[in-house]
Automatic annotation (TrEMBL), chain A:
Residues 94-288 form the ABC transmembrane type-1 domain. CDD domains: TM_PBP2. Its main location: membrane. It holds the Pfam family OppC_N. Belongs to the binding-protein-dependent transport system permease family. The chain crosses the membrane at residues 33-54, 98-124, 136-153, 159-179, 210-232, 268-288. It is a multi-pass membrane protein. It is found in: Cell membrane. This is ABC transporter permease.
Length: 301, 337
C-alpha cells in the first residue's frame, strides 16, 4: 500500500515538464492488458511478415498425396483438403489479412481526415457539400458494391489492390464525420483564432494546430477501424468476394469450414485461422481501449 | 467647436498632433442567423452596429460595456479575424477592410491580440518556445535554434523564467499563461495590440501585475492598445480615452478624466455609479437599471438604450441619436445633448 502511494506521488511529480504525448505514452505503458495485446499483435505481425523465412513449404501447390492430414511432426497444424500445409498458410494468410487491414486503415484514415478537417475548418458551403457527399458514400450498400466492383475489375487489375481500394473508398465516411465534429469543437478555442492572428496559413492552422489536438481521437479511431477492416476482409473472403482464392488469407482459410464435414470433423483446417483472427481482433480492441484511456486526461492509471 | 479652434490657434509650440494609427468608420459586423428549412439567413445578430473609433499612435483606448455588447466582435473585426459587414478599417493609412489571403497575412504582423481565456488561447500540444517563436517563423525563414536567444529575451521581458521555454502551457498558472500570450503577441513587434479582457479570467491578486506589465511594455515597444474590459475600474487605470458600448453601439467616447468626472450618457452614468467607492464622501447614489439588455438580433428602435433609460422621452423610441462632440473630445449619442 505504502509503495503504491509513493509510486503515484512520483508519477504526479513526473508529469511536470512532459508534453501531453509523453504523459499518454506513460499511461499506456502502464496498462497491462494493452501492453500484452501490443506484444501479441506485434508478434503476429512480425511472424506473418517473416513467413518466407520461417517455413519453406509451398503455399499454393496442391498435393494429392497429403490431403487432409491431421497435425503431425511434419505438418504442425495438419494439411487442408488440397494437401497444403495449414501452418504455412496461416502465416502467409496473416500477412495478407494484416496487410489488407493496414492498407485500408491507412487509406481510410487519410481520406477521412482530409475530408473531415476541411469540412470542419471551413464550415459553410464547403462543409455542407462535403458532408452531403459523405452521407451519400455512407449510404452505399457496401456488400453489393464490393461484389459488383470486384466482379467488374477481376482479371484486369490485381485482385488484392481492387479489394483494398474498394473497401477504402466505401469506408472513410465514419472517420470524416468524427474528425469533422472534433474539429468543429476544437476550432472554437481561442488558440485557433490566435494562430490565424499570428499569420498561419489555413493549411498550417489545420495541420499544426487542429490536427494534433484531435490526433488522439484519430488514433483511437484507427485502431477500431483496423480491427473492423480485418473482419471485413475476412467476411468478404469467406463469402468468396474478397481476397482471390489463390492467395491465402485468414478469411479464405475460414471459408473451408463452409463444408459441414470440415466444420464437424476436421477442426485443424479452420480452427487455427478462427482462433488467431479472434485473438488478433481482441488485442487490437484492447490496444484501442488502452489508447483511449491514455489520451483521456481524466483517467489516472 | 469654438473651443477647439481657440486651442489650435492658441497653442504656442504647435502641439504635434499625434498621428492616427487606427481609424474605424461606420463599422458593422453582423452574425447571420441561419434557420428554417434550407438553412437560409433569416436574420442578423447585430453585434457591432455602426461604430466609429479613432486611435492615435501610442495611445490606449479603452472599450467597456456589459457582456454581449459586442466588444470582442469589435476587437476581432478590427484585427480582421472577422470580416465586417459594412464600414471601413484604416490601419496606419491603409485600408484593410477587404484584403484577404496573403495580403492580409502580411498585414497581420502589425496588429496582434491578447486573448481573454488564458487556458483556451494556448495550444496544449505546443511548448512555450514553439508558441512564442511561431509568429516570427511565419514571416521569417529562421530555425528555432537561431531564434532561441530572442525568445528567451522575450520570456524574460514578460517576467517568465528561461526554463519556461521547454515547458507546456498546462504547467503554468493563469497569470503566467497570460504572460505567454502577451509574449506571443509581442514577438512580431506589432504597432497595435488589442487586449480582449486580458485580466478578467485572472485572480484579483495577479490582475494588477499583468496590467502593470502591459503598461511597461507599451512604453518599451511603442505600442498602441485597444483595451477591452467589462469593468470600468480596470479600464480607468489603463486608458487614455474610453469608449462605452451598448448593444453594438458606441454611446460615449471621452478622455479618461472627463468620462469619470462628468459622464454624460445615462448608461455611462449608471455604470460609473456602480463602481464601489471607498471614500464615503464621494459616494453617490447608485443608479440601478431596470430590465434586461435587449437582444442584438432584434434591437429596439430609436435609441438602443431607451428600453432601460431612466431619462427616456417619447421621441427616444423614434430617433436614433448620432454620436456627436458636445465638449472638446467628449462625444455622446443621446438626444439630451
Ligand atoms: N459566432 C457568433 N455567432 C452568432 N452570434 C455571436 C457570435 N459571437 C458572438 N455573438 C453574439 O454577438 C453579440 C456580441 O458578442 P461579443 O462576444 O462581441 O460580446 P462581448 O462584449 O465581447 O461580450 P463578453 O463580455 O461576454 O465577452 C452577443 O450577443 C453574442 O451572443
Ligand atoms: S437618447 Fe433618450 S433613451 Fe437614449 S440615452 Fe438619451 S435620453 Fe436615454
Ligand atoms: Mg468578449
Amino acid at each position: 500500500m505504502v509503495n503504491v502511494t509513493a509510486d503515484s506521488n512520483k508519477s504526479q511529480e513526473k508529469t511536470i515538464n512532459m508534453s501531453p504525448w509523453a504523459i499518454a505514452r506513460r499511461k499506456f505503458l502502464r496498462n497491462k492488458l494493452a501492453m500484452i495485446s501490443s506484444f501479441f499483435l506485434l508478434t503476429v505481425i512480425i511472424i506473418s511478415f517473416l513467413a518466407p523465412f520461417i517455413t519453406t513449404a509451398d503455399i499454393s501447390k496442391v498435393n494429392i498425396m497429403q490431403m487432409t492430414l491431421e497435425p503431425s511432426g511434419d505438418h504442425w497444424l495438419g494439411t487442408d483438403k488440397s494437401g497444403r500445409d495449414v501452418f504455412t498458410r496461416l502465416l502467409y494468410g496473416g500477412r495478407v489479412s494484416l496487410l489488407v487491414g493496414m492498407a485500408c486503415t491507412a487509406l481510410v484514415v487519410l481520406f477521412g481526415t482530409i475530408v473531415g478537417s476541411i469540412a470542419g475548418f471551413y464550415g459553410g458551403i464547403v462543409d455542407s457539400a462535403l458532408m452531403r457527399f459523405t452521407d451519400f458514400v455512407l449510404n452505399f450498400p457496401f456488400l453489393v458494391f464490393v461484389i459488383v466492383l470486384s466482379a467488374i475489375f477481376r482479371g484486369y487489375v490485381d485482385g488484392l489492390t481492387i479489394l483494398i481500394v474498394v473497401i477504402s473508398l466505401l469506408s472513410w465516411g465514419g472517420v470524416a464525420r468524427i474528425v469533422r465534429s472534433k474539429i468543429l469543437a476544437e476550432k472554437e478555442n481561442e488558440y485557433i483564432l490566435a494562430s490565424v492572428s499570428i499569420g498561419c496559413k489555413p493549411s498550417k492552422v489545420i495541420i499544426k494546430h487542429l490536427l494534433p489536438n484531435v490526433l488522439s481521437t484519430i488514433i483511437v479511431q484507427s485502431t477500431i477501424l483496423f480491427a473492423g477492416l480485418i473482419v471485413a476482409e475476412s467476411g468478404l473472403s469467406y463469402l468468396g468476394f474478397g481476397v482471390p482464392q489463390t492467395i491465402p488469407s485468414w478469411g479464405n482459410m475460414l471459408s473451408a469450414s463452409q463444408e459441414s464435414d470440415v466444420l464437424a470433423n476436421k477442426p485443424w483446417i479452420w480452427m487455427p485461422p478462427a482462433i488467431i483472427l479472434t485473438i488478433t481482433i481482441l488485442s487490437i480492441n484492447f490496444i484501442g481501449e488502452g489508447l483511449k484511456d491514455a489520451f483521456n486526461p481524466k483517467s489516472n492509471r | 467647436m469654438n473651443m477647439t479652434e481657440t486651442r489650435e490657434t492658441a497653442a504656442q509650440p504647435p502641439e504635434t498632433e499625434k498621428e492616427i494609427l487606427l481609424d474605424i468608420q461606420n463599422l458593422k459586423t453582423y452574425y447571420p442567423i441561419k434557420g428554417g428549412f434550407l438553412k437560409r439567413t433569416i436574420g442578423n445578430v447585430k453585434a457591432v452596429d455602426d461604430i466609429n473609433i479613432q486611435i492615435k499612435k501610442g495611445e490606449t483606448m479603452g472599450l467597456v460595456g456589459e457582456s454581449g455588447c459586442g466588444k470582442s466582435t469589435t476587437g476581432r473585426t478590427i484585427l480582421r479575424l472577422l470580416t465586417p459587414t459594412e464600414g471601413k478599417i484604416l490601419f496606419d493609412g491603409k485600408d484593410i477592410t477587404k484584403i484577404k489571403g496573403n495580403a492580409l497575412r502580411k498585414a497581420r504582423q502589425d496588429f496582434q491580440m491578447v486573448f481573454q481565456d488564458p487556458y483556451a488561447s494556448l495550444n496544449p500540444t505546443q511548448s512555450v518556445g514553439d508558441i512564442i517563436s511561431e509568429p516570427i517563423r511565419n514571416y521569417r525563414r529562421v530555425s528555432k535554434k537561431e531564434l532561441k536567444p530572442e525568445i528567451l529575451e522575450l520570456l524574460g521581458r514578460v517576467g517568465l523564467p528561461a526554463e519556461a521555454y521547454d515547458k507546456y502551457a498546462h504547467e503554468f498558472s493563469g497569470g503566467q499563461r497570460q504572460r505567454i500570450g502577451i509574449a506571443r503577441a509581442l514577438a512580431l513587434k506589432p504597432k497595435l495590440i488589442v487586449a480582449d479582457e486580458p485580466v478578467s479570467a485572472l485572480d484579483v491578486s495577479v490582475q494588477s501585475q499583468v496590467l502593470n506589465l502591459l503598461k511597461e511594455l507599451q512604453d518599451e515597444f511603442d505600442l498602441t492598445y485597444l483595451f477591452i474590459a467589462h469593468d470600468l475600474s480596470v479600464v480607468k487605470h489603463m486608458s487614455d480615452r474610453i469608449g462605452v458600448m451598448y448593444l453594438g453601439n458606441m454611446v460615449e467616447v471621452a478622455d479618461n478624466k472627463s468620462l469619470y468626472a462628468e459622464p454624460l450618457h445615462p448608461y455611462t452614468q449608471a455604470l460609473i455609479s456602480a463602481i464601489p467607492e471607498a471614500d464615503p464622501k464621494k459616494r453617490k447614489e447608485r443608479i440601478v437599471l431596470q430590465g434586461d439588455v435587449p437582444s442584438p438580433a432584434n434591437p429596439p428602435s430609436g435609441c438602443p438604450f431607451h428600453t432601460r433609460c431612466p431619462m427616456a422621452k417619447a421621441e427616444c423610441a423614434e430617433i436614433k441619436p448620432a454620436l456627436k462632440e458636445v465638449k472638446p473630445g467628449h462625444h455622446v449619442a443621446c438626444i439630451l445633448y
